[in-house]
Amino acid sequence: MKRLKYLLIAGVSLLFASCENFLDRQPESSLSGETFWTSEQDLKTWNAGMYDGLQSTLRTNWFYWGELRSGVYAERGTAYDRNLLYNGLNSQSGSSSWSDLYKTIYRANAAIKHIPTSPIGSSVSAPYLGQAYAMRALMYFYAIRVWGGVPKITEPMEDVSSQERYYGRTSVEELKAFILEDIEKALEYIGASTDMSSASKYYLNRGAIMALRVDVLMWYKEYDKALVAANDLLTNYKYSLEPASTYSSMFLNPSSSKEMIFNLFWNYEEDSNGFGYAQELASGSNTIRYHPTKAYYKELVSRKREDTRVTMIMDTFAISYFITPDEMIDESYEKAMNGDYGNAANFQIKCPKFTEYGATANDGRPGYSYVANGSCSTHMPIYRLADILLLKAEALVLGTHKDYQGAINIVNQIRERAGWESTAVLEDYPTEKDLIKLIIDERTIELWAEGKRWFDLVRNDMVKEYLDPYLQNEDLGDQRIPEGFVIGAEKEANQIGGYGRILWPLNQDVFRKNPSMRGQQNKPYEE
């Protein structure tokens, strides 16, 4: 049993106890209304178990599912995964497993089943029930973006460690209605709110659920409805962009930020392991696995310190001890990789976005206090205001209520906040495709390392647009793929989301444990 965590909900301290072991060894049938679900403490315990499931699901998958394959990273060290980087997924890939995701769904299902019939008054139980519906919607939203159609399971499993046997796949379109219905129920049970800017960032409150609704509607290309939902969130909940002066602090202390909407809580002492951010991008104990490509390095150094976000994406302090500021130009990346500045293995561009800065952190010099992989306690944003604003910009371009200048204004608002004075001008973006690429590129910089870019490319049908040049680049050497991103399957008419190799394969365990799934692997993968 892990240490208890406390969050605020509806003015009451919500005990965010992590009860992974308890929930795993207790079949749902033994947690009946007579033995469990009889006190608010029971609801707190179960609620904490749901969030624990979310943590386990996204510990590394926030990055593997949402960003790594998106063409902005190059390999470093020796622990990188080329299959993830270069479109070589297979059914044995660890992140192709949905075990943790469905475990979280089972826990949400149990809460949805038992809370309405518990003796606890609705004024106390309703927020917990609302969070259960929201958690289930969030998990299914991840599922459809990663695998496409997945089994729709609405009841608890008697043993949450078992596979979801005898369930076939439900279509992405059918799951749309299911997810949106769960979101509406979550909003109903959570209740009305007006000022969410000071609410806890670590549970699914009304602001977080509204952000999820915007994201889901954008994925399903319901642009006009997404615009209405975005305007509601932006107008009525008192969130605001963090000013440039405190921009970096919101990633270290999201609780005090009016921009953050929903963050994943992680504490390595309580969660028995470090969050994956350190091992992938910012390790204090090992060589990092990935850092920006040469193309993105050039883009970043071209902005120098004019754009606050540059120093959040790459540690210019550490690089400056390796490459002097005067040498930090376009060509310096290639020179460093060739060993012109010393051992090329020492050249790693760490991402300090979620790392404390210290005056003596870098061997007595100014720099960032990177922690060991197992000690990483990053509170990864799942939704924040800049994300929603830029989704709104997409809706202004793609919906029926066209406002191209409004979309440009949002991009410039995000840039201005970051201190970057390069103003986008509508005349430079004559087509809708040009505008969407502008927004995607802005989201790439603004939301770097937050697990968004891959979904941005898929949502806008631009995987090959961005990934072909990346995979065809001669810098990849023997990993170069002359034909670019090979999807390997035809897109069906009016298909929403991914298909072929844009989707992940279903893990081989699915076919071994669930007879109903045999023969339903995503093409062109093998079972």
Question: Could you provide a short overview of the structure?
Answer:
The protein is 43% helix and 6% strand. With 527 residues, the chain is mainly alpha-helical.
The rounded Rg comes to 23 Å
Structural class: mainly alpha
Share of helix, binned: 40-55%
Q: How would the global form be characterised?
A: globular
What's the CATH architecture name of the domain at 17-191 and 465-527? Answer: Alpha Horseshoe
Strand content: 5-15%
Contiguous helical run count = 22
Gap between N and C termini, in Å?
Answer: 36 Å
Instruction: Summarize the biggest pleated sheet.
Output: 2 strands, antiparallel
Based on DSSP secondary structure assignment, what is the total number of beta strands?
8
Oligomeric organization of the protein chains: single chain
CATH class of the domain at 17-191 and 465-527: Mainly Alpha
* CATH fold topology of the domain at 17-191 and 465-527: Serine Threonine Protein Phosphatase 5, Tetratricopeptide repeat
Would you identify the regions where 5 or more consecutive residues have pLDDT less than 50? 1-30
List SSEs in N-to-C order: EEHHHEHHHHHHHEHHEHHHHEEEHHHHHH
Question: What is the mean pLDDT?
Answer: 89
Strand order of the largest sheet: 1-2
Protein name: SusD family protein
Subcellular location: Cell outer membrane
Main location: membrane
Keywords: Cell outer membrane, Membrane, Signal
